[in-house]
Amino acid sequence: MTNTENTVQKLRLGASLSLIALIILSLAWEGFLAPIKPEGSNLILKAVPLLLPLFGILNGRRYTYQWASMFILIYFTEGAVRAWADQGLTAKLALIEVLLTVIFFACTIFYAKLTRVSAK
Q1: Residue 36 — φ and ψ, nearest 5°?
Q2: CA dihedral (108, 109, 110, 114) positive or negative
Q3: pTM value?
Q4: C-beta separation of 51 from 23 below 8 A
Q5: Mind giving me the DSSP string for the chain?
Q6: Is the dihedral of CA 100, 103, 109, 114 positive or negative?
Q7: What residues have CB less than 8 Å from 119, skipping those under 6 apart?
Q8: CA distance 97 to 6
């Protein structure tokens, strides 16, 4: 395995794990850790759009990596705003969301760059 292939595999793993962790974080955050309403809210549904790129990311589809790198910025924005505006556990969870989105974004853009036809 060449150095580039090894890097591509690590980027694919990083993108997959960060996306799965973001899905779990979204469900736990809005489900029981720190929901907006004590009885829960429909904001838990924010995890559903994260399922759209999941199988393409897991299967290494370059096109999915390309569009998902822009798609994830919605979650970055939400995390940044809530980290700044909220307090306590919600702010900490928002910072974790920001961290996961940054990891996902970096992995997806470098994966897309290293797997383009001219890079092979």
Answers
A1: -60, -40
A2: positive
A3: 0.93
A4: yes
A5: --HHHHHHHHHHHHHHHHHHHHHHHHHHIIIIIS-SSTT--GGGGGGGGGGTTHHHHHTT-HHHHHHHHHHTHHHHHHHHHHHHH--HHHHHHHHHHHHHHHHHHHHHHHHHHHTSGGG-
A6: negative
A7: 4, 113
A8: 27
Give the tokens for residue 110. Answer: 């470098």
Mean pLDDT of 69-98: 97
Backbone angles phi, psi at 119, to 5 degrees: -85, -15
Residue 118 tokens read as 């001219």
Number of domains in the chain: 1
Tokens of 33: 């850790």
Residue type, 59: N
Q: Detail the DSSP E strand segments found in 1-120.
A: none
**Nearest Cα to 97, choosing from 72, 79, 77?**
79
3-state secondary structure at position 99:
helix
Q: Which residue matches tokens 């990891």?
A: 103
Confidence at 86, pLDDT banded by 50, 70, 90:
very high
Domain containing 53 equals 3-119
